[in-house]
User: Which sequence fits this backbone?
């Protein structure tokens, strides 16, 4: 199996899925999966949830046991960084100095946490400021989750709120600092954001909105933050600070190799980059969504997996167009939030269910078209919403809000042609 | 360790061993059984580890909780013996369990 090498850079959900799915789809050459990290590839979602809360052991977060890679003839190169791509020679250069030739190359490089501006950091390296993306990050945070300590979470997005939920449950005193006027401002409607803020406050989390982090107060050694200073002048004492302020796609390798990149490696519906020998998948990619008629970059496990399956099919000469309906999930406390679609451009939000019973769905509409939905503890709504969003269905808003009408009855009937996807502004 | 048999829709059988306390989904994933995608990693969020528990065994398993039933409601080809394999916790008494896999694993 020394011919036809398939090299995959990055071993998150996307990279691992390409490796296994390509073998299953019939790739008969060598498959090399390269990861900067030393760990066997693992699931990321539990890192801000059950794993960090100590409810899930490290061996249950691995994506596949080592035996699966062995059996599929996938060579795992852990602790190796790809430094550059020579597209003319079809080589990648590794951090150790060696080079590997590829027949096909897949970039599954993911992303890294957005960091606080340098101006905020002050002098030197501090020991109790963390970001969360990798297992090592999670382990560092875990070692500092000590009951009674004060934790400041910078950023009231999903990762920040998941961290706050598990830390307050672990007995820490938690403050979330959000720069916008409310939490989840970029991703959900006010009614959903307010609901989550209320749940967190009831659990004991302090949420401070419109707070821009300006700097840190350090202890006399200069190695530890003792307080977070905001531009409002407020000072928040902290034994531990975690920032969850977004993700930056890892596109440098692709850019340096001359591939087309624009906040994501550009790929087509078959996950091909601008070089026919190179594919890309997952958080690091940007593609044109037929559903929303614009280019999108998704940070999502289902996207990484589905796009990876498209790469595997493409590599083996099979047609499998990728244009799935985006979906996401977030578990906090007893709340199972499942979201589908992209809500930007909505002009009204329709609620179904009851906020006080912690079971409701928010549908985002533009005119009569269902763009997206957030469902809380309502999986059946989520599953129908996925179809409504995928079909670009048009519904009567009052039907959506009416609990006496089954959501399923709002689906376009099979006999009727689906509504043609109207283009969404922007 | 209990031995579980997964039977693909095309009839291919996979006999796998799995530790007590792990889930049927993990047993399938850890042994590369095709047709169990388990996209969400076992958090009852995706319904891509759907399987049919053999009639002989349906009585011996604890029944599905509400969130599992909710997810199953949207799985393709749901039957009365449908389960999400990530919600089947293996016990020593489950040695010999048979799970058939649906044709379509969404």
Assistant:
């Amino acid at each position: 199996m020394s011919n036809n090498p398939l090299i995959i850079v990055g071993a998150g959900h996307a990279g691992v899925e390409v490796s296994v799915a390509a073998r299953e789809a019939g790739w008969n050459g060598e498959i090399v999966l390269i990861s900067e990290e030393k760990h066997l590839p693992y699931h990321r979602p539990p890192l801000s949830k059950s794993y960090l809360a100590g409810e899930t052991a490290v061996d249950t977060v691995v994506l596949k046991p080592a035996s699966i890679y062995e059996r599929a003839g996938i060579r795992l190169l852990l602790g190796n960084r790809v430094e550059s791509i020579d597209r003319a020679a079809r080589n990648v250069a590794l951090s150790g100095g060696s080079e590997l030739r590829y027949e096909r190359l897949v970039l599954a490089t993911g992303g890294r946490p957005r960091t606080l501006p340098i101006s905020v950091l002050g002098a030197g390296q501090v020991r109790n400021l963390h970001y969360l993306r990798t297992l090592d990050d999670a382990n560092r945070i875990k070692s500092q989750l000590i009951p009674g300590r004060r934790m400041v979470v910078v950023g009231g997005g999903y990762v920040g709120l998941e961290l706050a939920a598990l830390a307050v449950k672990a007995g820490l005193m938690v403050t979330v600092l959000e720069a916008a006027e409310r939490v989840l401002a970029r991703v959900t409607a006010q009614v959903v954001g307010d609901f989550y803020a209320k749940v967190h406050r009831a659990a004991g989390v302090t949420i401070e909105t419109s707070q821009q982090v300006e700097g840190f107060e350090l202890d006399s050694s200069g190695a530890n933050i003792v307080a977070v200073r905001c531009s409002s002048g407020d000072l928040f004492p902290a034994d531990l600070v975690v920032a969850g302020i977004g993700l930056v796609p890892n596109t440098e390798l692709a850019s340096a190799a001359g591939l087309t990149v624009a906040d994501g490696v550009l790929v087509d519906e078959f996950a091909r980059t601008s070089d026919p020998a190179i594919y890309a998948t997952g958080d690091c990619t940007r593609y044109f969504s037929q559903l929303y008629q614009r280019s999108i970059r998704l940070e999502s496990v289902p996207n990484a997996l589905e796009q990876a399956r498209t790469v595997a099919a493409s590599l083996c000469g099979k047609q499998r167009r990728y244009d799935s309906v985006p979906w996401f999930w977030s578990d906090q406390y007893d709340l199972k939030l499942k979201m589908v679609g992209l809500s930007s451009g909505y002009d009204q939000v329709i609620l179904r269910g009851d906020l006080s019973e912690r079971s409701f769905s928010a549908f985002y509409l533009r005119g009569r078209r269902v763009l997206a939905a957030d469902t809380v503890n309502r999986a059946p709504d989520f599953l129908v919403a996925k179809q409504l969003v995928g079909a670009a269905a048009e519904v009567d808003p009052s039907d959506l809000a009416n609990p006496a009408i089954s959501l399923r009855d709002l689906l376009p009937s099979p006999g009727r042609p689906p509504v043609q996807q109207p283009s969404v502004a922007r | 360790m209990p031995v579980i048999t997964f039977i693909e829709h095309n009839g291919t059988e996979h006999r796998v061993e799995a530790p007590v306390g792990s889930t049927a989904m993990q047993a399938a994933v850890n042994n590369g059984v095709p047709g169990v995608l388990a996209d969400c990693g076992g958090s009852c969020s995706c319904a891509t580890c759907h399987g049919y528990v053999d009639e002989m065994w349906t009585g011996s398993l604890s029944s599905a909780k509400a969130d599992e039933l909710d997810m199953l409601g949207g799985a393709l080809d749901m039957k009365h013996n449908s389960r999400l394999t990530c919600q089947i916790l293996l016990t020593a008494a489950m040695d010999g369990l048979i799970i058939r896999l649906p044709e379509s694993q969404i």
In short: The two ends of chain B are 30 Å apart (CA to CA).
